Sequence to fold (130 residues):
Amino acid sequence: MTSRRRVPDEVMVLADGSIQPDLFGATDAELARRAHAERVREQFEGRARTLPGGAAVVWVAPYDTIGARTGERRPGWRCWLCGGVEANEYVLGLRHGLHAGDPEVLTRTRCRLQDRMQDRDTDGAMGGPR
Ligand SMILES: [Zn+2]
Fold:
């Protein structure tokens, strides 16, 4: 075989440089999983770091926080489902439930904030579901 493909760390390379045969398809499956994760990561960052027009997402500090002064502008992370902008990827994951490591993140149709808003609207504070 003349094609070069990346060899995962788990693959056993023998002393003569040959690779242990992938008898059960585990290597191919792992390579496919990693390639999918890489594509998801790229699309995730494309959606979260740029606005639909292509401009970079900007986060404006609402108050003195995480090393930023009130009103300071920094590159931000945007929830493409509700439009909320967060200071970093970690907070985007916490508040909106969008994690780059989630292989299904791009297929989600609602974020965690939207779910909470709907729960609040349908549960009601006193009377239960309407
Ligand atoms: Zn959101």
